[in-house]
Write a structure and sequence with these properties.
It is globular and about 60 Å long. With about 240 residues, it is α/β, with parallel strands linked by helices. It is built from 9 helices and 8 strands. It folds into 2 domains: about 130 residues, Type I PLP-dependent aspartate aminotransferase-like (Major domain) (Aspartate Aminotransferase, domain 2, 3-Layer(aba) Sandwich); about 110 residues, Aspartate Aminotransferase, domain 1 (Alpha-Beta Complex), CATH 3.90.1150. A hairpin with a 7-residue loop joins strand 5 and strand 6. The strands form 2 sheets. The chain has a 4-stranded mixed sheet with strand order 1-2-3-4.
C-alpha cells in the first residue's frame, strides 16, 4: 500500500463525506490528516450535510476539527441541503479550480443556476453565519439524542450526537430484508396514525457494504421541543406494538 501511494505516477484520492448521510457519523478528519502526512494522497470532501451544521462558524467538518482549508484539495457539496437550493458547488486549490473552469465550461454554462436560486443560496449563507440558527439546531440535536439514549426501544440511535441526521436501527437484527419490511411498516404507521413523515433507508442490492436498515430522522433548527416530544412519544407508541 505504501509503495503504491509513494509511486509518483499514481494519483491517489481519498474521497469522504464530512457528515455521512447513511450513518449520521462524522469523518475522523484529524486522523486522516495524520495519515496524509505519511502518504502522499489528496482529499476530496463531500460536505453537503456538514456545512451549516458543524463547526463554530458552520463551515463544516474542517471547521469542526480546526483544519486549515488549504490542506484539503477539493471540497464539494450540494446546494439542496443546508442552502435549500439546487445544484452544487466545488472549491479548492487555485490550480484545481482553474482546471475545473477550463474543462467544465460546457457543463457549467448549460446547467448554471437561475439568478433567483443563486440569490436564495446567498441568503442561506447569511443565515448560516448567524449563531442563532446553528445554536437552535445544536440544542435540538442535543435534546433528541439525549432523550433517545434513555429509551428502552428495540431500535438504537447509531448517529453522532452532533448529527441532525439520525438513524435508528434494530438492536437485535435478523436479515436486512426482514428488518427493512418491519421498518417500512413502522414508517407507514407513523404517517397514518400520527401524520409524521419519516423516511427509511434503502440500498441497491448491488452495493457490497450496505448499512443496516434504519429509520432516518432529519432534525432542523425550526423544530420546537414540542415537535420533538411529539415525535418521541409517537415512536414510543409504535415501538410498543412490536
Amino acid at each position: 500500500m505504501k509503495k503504491l501511494l509513494q509511486n509518483k505516477k499514481k494519483r491517489v484520492w481519498l474521497i469522504i463525506e464530512g457528515l455521512y448521510t447513511n450513518y449520521g457519523d462524522i469523518a475522523p478528519l484529524k486522523e486522516i490528516m495524520t495519515l496524509k502526512e505519511e502518504f502522499p494522497f489528496r482529499i476530496m470532501i463531500d460536505d453537503s450535510l456538514g456545512i451549516g451544521v458543524l463547526g463554530n462558524s458552520g463551515l463544516g467538518v474542517i471547521d469542526h476539527f480546526g483544519i486549515d482549508h488549504k490542506e484539503i484539495e477539493i471540497i464539494v457539496g450540494s446546494l439542496g441541503t443546508s442552502f435549500g437550493g439546487v445544484g452544487g458547488f466545488a472549491c479548492g486549490e487555485h490550480n484545481i479550480v482553474d482546471h475545473m473552469r477550463l474543462n467544465c465550461t460546457g457543463y457549467v454554462f448549460s446547467a448554471s443556476l437561475p439568478p433567483y436560486i443563486s440569490a436564495a443560496c446567498i441568503k442561506s449563507i447569511d443565515l448560516i453565519r448567524t449563531e442563532n440558527q446553528r445554536e437552535l439546531l445544536r440544542r435540538n440535536c442535543e435534546y433528541f439524542h439525549e432523550t433517545v439514549a434513555m429509551k428502552n426501544w428495540p431500535m438504537v440511535n447509531r448517529s453522532d450526537p452532533l448529527s441532525p441526521v439520525v438513524h435508528l436501527e434494530f438492536i437485535n437484527q435478523t436479515s436486512p430484508k426482514h428488518d427493512q419490511r418491519i421498518i417500512s411498516q413502522l414508517v407507514d404507521k407513523l404517517f397514518d396514525e400520527f401524520n409524521l413523515v419519516l423516511s427509511h433507508s434503502g440500498y441497491l442490492t448491488l452495493e457490497k457494504h450496505s448499512p443496516s436498515p434504519s429509520i432516518r430522522i432529519l432534525l432542523n433548527a425550526l423544530h420546537t421541543q414540542d415537535d420533538l416530544d411529539t415525535l418521541i412519544s409517537s415512536l414510543d407508541t409504535v415501538f410498543s406494538s412490536l
